[in-house]
């Protein structure tokens, strides 16, 4: 896009779609290569949590086996009968969609500022200049004990973003976050079982953890083969719980192919991130994924990222170290988060590149 063109923030994706796709949104072919055929979806397990939640030991054993198989393969599975109220999910979708349907100038009133968790982002154009994702986002968090949490800032965000109903909508967001936190701790317990780890280890590790909520809106694109809704990456966080609508677009890289994750009514998608890969001493890998966009349909997803407390040191349980060596040095979630915000754009190799950078930085500090 030439220098005389309007700012990205003054345009909508709809206006882009009527004209040429700006160069800033076009991804290189090696990252936007072809997806598997439509009938070759990811064969991830669909795990019914009802038995586990009810305390059935045989159900828990079978679930742990399914989770282990998925996490050794590609790091993603879906859960049903998860205990999150469908009405609450639908309310979230409705309010989020209403916000994204506002004029761009209205949305920019709550623009996310550098270094802040709260706010709206148009294609992450505030952070990057190339390979922009074809999406808009809202980010927020609700951890009262988290350093930097400001309840007044939260109130201002919701009032500016949602108008007269902001208090009611703020409560819906917070209730959804609390439901996801509860579910995350259940899944962490299952992950511990699947790894043969003492039951309390991961529960205690994440009990005082933090979380980030991100609502994603992917508008239609007249040339979907040129753009990506989200580029190939692994989440740097520990665990992601995603609710996607029925349009589809999430893909996982496995066996040298990008495979679509089929949307399922009532299901939530669970994927592992870099923090949990390090916490498992590399037994489980982060899930490499991306999001493609649709030519004629918009897509909405709600992503909940579970993280440990910022200053908690990532140390695997002894059962996963045994006589072998540690694959990763001691570091904190704060170390990795700052790396992705200040030094590195998250991709599939974030964790390994972070460790290289972290070791070099530590040597420089010690010398």
Automatic annotation (TrEMBL):
<dbReference type="GO" id="GO:0002238">
    <property type="term" value="P:response to molecule of fungal origin"/>
</dbReference>
<comment type="pathway">
    <text>Plant hormone biosynthesis; gibberellin biosynthesis.</text>
</comment>
<feature type="domain" description="Fe2OG dioxygenase">
    <location>
        <begin position="208"/>
        <end position="308"/>
    </location>
</feature>
<dbReference type="GO" id="GO:0046872">
    <property type="term" value="F:metal ion binding"/>
</dbReference>
<keyword id="KW-0560">Oxidoreductase</keyword>
<protein>
    <recommendedName>
        <fullName>Fe2OG dioxygenase domain-containing protein</fullName>
    </recommendedName>
</protein>
<dbReference type="InterPro" id="IPR005123">
    <property type="entry name" value="Oxoglu/Fe-dep_dioxygenase_dom"/>
</dbReference>
<keyword id="KW-0479">Metal-binding</keyword>
<dbReference type="InterPro" id="IPR026992">
    <property type="entry name" value="DIOX_N"/>
</dbReference>
<dbReference type="InterPro" id="IPR044861">
    <property type="entry name" value="IPNS-like_FE2OG_OXY"/>
</dbReference>
<dbReference type="GO" id="GO:0009805">
    <property type="term" value="P:coumarin biosynthetic process"/>
</dbReference>
<comment type="pathway">
    <text>Hormone biosynthesis.</text>
</comment>
<comment type="similarity">
    <text>Belongs to the iron/ascorbate-dependent oxidoreductase family. GA20OX subfamily.</text>
</comment>
<keyword id="KW-0408">Iron</keyword>
<dbReference type="InterPro" id="IPR027443">
    <property type="entry name" value="IPNS-like_sf"/>
</dbReference>
<dbReference type="Pfam" id="PF14226">
    <property type="entry name" value="DIOX_N"/>
</dbReference>
<dbReference type="GO" id="GO:0009686">
    <property type="term" value="P:gibberellin biosynthetic process"/>
</dbReference>
<dbReference type="Pfam" id="PF03171">
    <property type="entry name" value="2OG-FeII_Oxy"/>
</dbReference>
<dbReference type="GO" id="GO:0045544">
    <property type="term" value="F:gibberellin 20-oxidase activity"/>
</dbReference>
<dbReference type="InterPro" id="IPR050231">
    <property type="entry name" value="Iron_ascorbate_oxido_reductase"/>
</dbReference>
